[in-house]
Amino acid sequence: MATLGLGQGIFQYKNIVIKGFAAWLTHRGYHVLAVPTWERKVRVLIIWLSAALFGRDLVSLASVQHPRDAFVTGDDPRSSGEGRLDDHAAA
């Protein structure tokens, strides 16, 4: 069983061979069955369905290049540079 891209796959079990979209759905179904609880299974299916309808949720990697910087400098992520530890130390 393997996916070959979005909506394409191949599945082989003994003499049974499934190709294309049906194999891709079989692959997805197999992974949903491996998820431990029904709540999580439903959540995964909803995420997959929303991605199919509205596209994937993309985040720019530029915004997460240095995730520790705000923590180390004491920046408040809700403000625009105010609230640094250096500002408080000088006061």
Task: Describe the protein in words.
This protein is 46% helix and 12% strand. With 91 residues, the chain is α+β, with helices and mostly antiparallel strands. The chain has 2 domains: 2-41, no CATH class; 61-90, no CATH class. A 3-stranded antiparallel beta sheet has the order 1-2-3, with helices on one face. The radius of gyration is 23 Å and the shape is elongated. The relative contact order is 0.08. The mean pLDDT is 76.
Choose one word for the global shape.
Answer: elongated
Helix content: 40-55%
Distance between the termini: 63 Å
Based on helices, strands and strand pairing, what is the structural class?
alpha+beta
- In total, the number of strands is 3
Q: Compute the number of helices.
A: 4
Major β-sheet profile: 3 strands, antiparallel
What is the strand content? Answer: 5-15%
Strand order of the largest sheet: 1-2-3
* Poorly predicted runs of 5 or more residues: none
Order of helices and strands: EEEHHHH
Q: Rg to the nearest angstrom? A: 23 Å
Give the domain tally: 2
Q: What is the average per-residue confidence, as pLDDT, rounded to a whole number?
A: 76
Secondary structure layout:
Layout: E1 2-3, E2 9-13, E3 16-19, H1 21-34, H2 38-54, H3 69-73, H4 85-90
Antiparallel strand pairs: 1-2, 2-3
Highlighted features:
4 helices; 91 residues; alpha+beta; 46% helix; three-stranded antiparallel β-sheet; elongated
Task: Briefly say what this structure is.
The protein is α+β, with helices and mostly antiparallel strands and 91 residues long. Helix content is 46%, strand content 12%.
